[in-house]
Design goal:
Layout lengths: L1 H8 L3 E6 L2 E6 L4 H10 L5 E9 L7 E9 L4 E9 L4 E3 L8 H12 L2 E3 L29 H8 L6
Parallel strand pairs: 2-5, 6-7
Antiparallel strand pairs: 1-2, 3-4, 4-5
Length: 158
């Protein structure tokens, strides 16, 4: 499968294995097309998860990772790309409708937006919350004190 994809997309795909788990690092520009091919041609019919990792010291601060599963093949693969802070990615909701809430969680926790998403709003934190708690520059004890004061009428417990 990887050889076929590399034949079609060239150097924009780097296949890797870590601890017996297959994944590929894909150029950001190829993401929508690669995800569509994995769904339609390679039978990865289930988007298990979408997540991100923040590396504040890197130029491209975020890795965005799709964890995909193929029921017919009984196989799992991860697709990873790197993006700049403030960059967006195309939504994968048209490919896997269940990606809706997964992309919203990535937006809520990391601030990464997905173009074309049907409802790009927070899913875990209140709409007026400031910041994105899974970024490494968001302190572990940090809280949106202003939101807590206004909405809960208490001083932060931190």
């Amino acid at each position: 499968m990887i050889a076929r994809l590399k034949g079609n997309f060239g150097s924009g795909i780097e296949p890797l294995t870590y601890a017996g788990q297959n994944y590929m690092v894909v150029d950001r520009s190829l993401i929508p097309e690669i995800l569509q091919v994995l769904r339609n041609e390679e039978q990865f019919d289930y988007c298990v998860d979408i997540t991100a990792v923040h590396y504040p010291a890197r130029e491209k601060q975020f890795d965005v990772v799709w964890v995909l599963y193929s029921h017919p093949r009984n196989e799992r693969i991860r697709v990873k790309t790197q993006i700049l802070d403030g960059a967006t990615l195309p939504s994968s909701v048209p490919i896997w409708p269940g990606a809706n809430w997964l992309e919203r969680e990535v937006y809520d926790m990391f601030g990464i937006k997905f173009d074309g998403h049907p409802d790009m709003n927070r899913i875990l934190l209140p709409e007026g919350w400031k910041g994105h708690p899974l970024r490494k520059d968001y302190g572990i004890l940090q809280q949106d004190n202003e939101w807590v004061q206004i909405n809960l009428g208490i001083e932060s417990g931190q």
